[in-house]
What does this fold into?
Amino acid sequence: MTLKIFEDELRTECKRLYSSLRDGSRNKKLKNKKINSLTDIFFLGRKNPRKLFQGCAITFGNVLENTLMNYAEKMGANVYREKSFLSLEIDGLFRIVDIVYNLESKANIELDKEKTREAFEALKRKHEIVFNGLECRNKRWQVISKIIVWTKETSEDAAKTAKKPLEEKHLMGFKDFFELFYVIVVKDDFFSMLQRVWIEEVEVFF
It folds into this structure.
């Protein structure tokens, strides 16, 4: 039932963020793009079948990020959409009772050492900003800051792929996320749902 709520929110975000795919303007813009990479040269005068796919796959990361907040709100959490007091971009920020969840949304945690270090440092900075910005000390709220990895079921699974200094305590799988709302989701169902939404809301317009 509640995974269906997440799916519905995913589809809503797809309709919004892929509007340029649906009307053909995204593809037209790609065709008019200047030569910026070796790949552009390799496909001079030919259709690059991967270019549209890659751009849409990146957009799906934004779809998941927005859906995170929409779903949290649907499930009764207090969400913080107006984050003007924050100096850094926050992906997901919501509160359940007296616990504030500051989540960084990632589809892939297989990063090189430099990017892993950057992700770790950014998470620490955002934790402090959220804690101070929401005056959590005065309100006696706890802040939990994690990177949610949509391709991994649990934090333990994500930690097997992530490099140091990221550890299991810094990570969250999709199963961990749904458990915040007392919802049990298994990997096969979640992955099947993501694939179904991608095919029906995105790939069909390629």
Summary: The two ends are 30 Å apart (CA to CA). Residues 10 and 67 are 6 Å apart (CA to CA).
